[in-house]
Write a structure and sequence with these properties.
Helices cover about 45% and strands about 10% of the residues. The chain is of the alpha/beta class. The longest helix has 19 residues, at about 415-435. It has one domain.
Length: about 500
């Protein structure tokens, strides 16, 4: 079985193996899925908007958790060389410059050349078997990060239920901060009689425990889900299983849960730990409400040094505010993984935030962006010897993004910079009051940011929301779904 050779650059491999099939092809559309089992939504990775799974179809065919009619039509577009709109995150990255590596590479190169050939040559309307899968059993979560919302965090839902909708936001996606996420738990917090959870366990028993290379559980906070611990118990009782297991944890949970994770890492053959952060100290505590920096760092070190995890991943969501201390954050990661006598793997991943667009890097004024791009270019030159190859590519991509992208990523009509900047100020003013976190105190070491924020005071952008709205996570991608279905009907692929 052939996989990418070490001597090949990512773009050389892409041209030879992926783009030679189709300039729009990506292995993730066939072999990977994210499925939010709590409410029955799916996407092929974390970039496209989610779409709804038919609850009746999964009762008859558990494979329908992944092989939805819509996803099959998108596969058809990829086979035909159409750069489907739902994957514009990667198209935007690839347009920046020739040596920038998009996630289409990382999402495809984990599969063999033969597997990618098989996917491309599979009839578009045929069910395929997953090789990598990410699931969320529910959205229960003890954090309420600034760029999250009530649909993915019950703590966020508590904020909205207590304080009402956020006001005076006009850019696309404002509705994410004006609903309480009630749509996210149609089967209640305990997922009683949930057809999607039942379909997962059926598919797991019949096929997935043999076909997957990795299963990853996210949330909310994965470790507060009873189904996650049911899965851990299953692994303990079935030590012969070769499916790698990954868990996303904010590492802000009780010590007993952390210790149980560490214990499980010693009996699960291939257990990967994923956590999230992208800034240092007070910045992290502001951006990720609920996080206590010292506790997070101590818990990261505890699980890293005491666990037998095959690798520890720190996922960064690269937003406007994290640029103030992304360098100091990296340096803490360097310090941990360079501990003398410790030979373990810890790495970071670079995920550029595009939603909500007003929290995007592209919302920052040009002078701050130029200064930050220059700063990180110089920092990379001094520190690349401490970084893995994919981390160097990731930071180079970020720097190019800071310098060159003015309109961000949006599957909807992108709001203008003036509207987004007003939203930036209006949102964080309310967020600061609700969370009792004064942004001027938490970012007092970044005066350039605070000076700019001060110019946005007293803006006249008004949008009053008198009551919570009825919205869900699939709303922002409906335009794309309708476009794909319309083209399919026009071309005779769907009636």
């Amino acid at each position: 079985m052939t996989k990418k050779g070490d001597s090949e650059s990512p773009n050389e491999w892409m041209d030879k193996v992926v783009n030679s099939k189709s300039s729009a092809f990506c292995g993730a559309k066939w072999y990977n899925a994210t499925v939010w089992l709590g409410n029955g939504m799916t996407a092929s990775c974390h970039h496209p908007p989610p779409h709804q799974i038919d609850p009746e179809e999964v009762k008859k065919n558990p494979k329908a958790l992944h092989n939805t009619p819509y996803k099959k039509l998108v596969r058809k577009e990829m086979q035909e060389g159409i750069q489907t709109r739902e994957c514009e995150y990667c198209w935007k990255i690839e347009e920046m410059q020739d040596d920038v590596v998009s996630d289409r590479y990382y999402k495809s190169s984990i599969y063999t050349d033969e597997e990618l050939d098989a996917a491309f040559n599979t009839p578009w309307d045929q069910d395929v078997t997953l090789k990598t899968l990410e699931i969320a059993f529910d959205n229960n979560c003890n954090f309420a990060c600034s760029y999250c919302n009530a649909g993915f965090s019950t703590t966020w839902a508590h904020d909205v239920n207590k304080n009402g909708a956020y006001q005076d936001l006009n850019s696309e996606g404002w509705g994410a901060f004006a609903h309480n996420g009630s749509w996210a738990q149609p089967y209640g917090k305990k997922n009683q009689d949930n057809p999607y959870v039942e379909a997962f366990w059926k598919w797991w028993d019949s096929e997935l425990q043999y076909s997957l290379t990795q299963l990853r559980v996210t949330g909310g906070e994965a470790t507060v889900s009873k189904d996650f611990w049911k899965l851990i118990d299953w692994y303990e009782q079935n030590p012969q299983c070769d499916v790698g297991l990954g868990v996303n944890s904010n590492l802000g949970v009780k010590q007993a849960s952390l210790d149980r994770l560490v214990e499980a890492s010693h009996f699960i053959k291939d257990f990967e730990l994923y956590t999230s952060n992208e800034s240092f100290g007070a910045h992290a505590e502001y951006i990720r409400d609920g996080l206590i920096w010292d506790d997070w760092l101590n818990n990261l070190e505890h699980t890293y040094f005491n666990g037998n995890f095959s690798s520890v991943h720190v996922m960064m969501t690269l937003n406007a505010l994290c640029l103030g201390s992304l360098d100091r954050f990296h340096e803490e990661i360097f310090r941990i993984r360079q501990t003398p006598g410790v030979n373990k793997t810890m790495m970071v991943s670079y995920n550029i935030l595009r939603f909500p667009s007003f929290q995007s890097i592209t919302t920052l004024p040009k002078d701050i962006r130029i200064e930050r791009a220059n700063h990180y270019t110089q920092w990379l030159a001094r520190n690349k010897q401490h970084m893995y190859e994919h981390e160097i590519y990731g930071l180079k991509r970020l720097i190019a993004y800071i310098e060159k992208v003015d309109h961000g990523h949006s599957v909807q009509q992108l709001s203008g910079i003036e509207s987004r900047q007003k939203d930036f100020y209006n949102f964080y003013s309310q967020y600061s009051r609700r969370r009792n976190k004064d942004i001027n105190e938490y970012f007092d070491d970044w005066p350039q940011l605070l000076t700019w924020l001060n110019t946005l005071k007293g803006n006249n952008q008004v949008h009053k929301v008198d009551s919570l709205i009825d919205a869900n996570a699939v709303d922002w991608g409906q335009d794309i779904v309708k476009n794909v279905l319309s083209n399919a009907i026009k071309n005779g692929s769907k009636k």
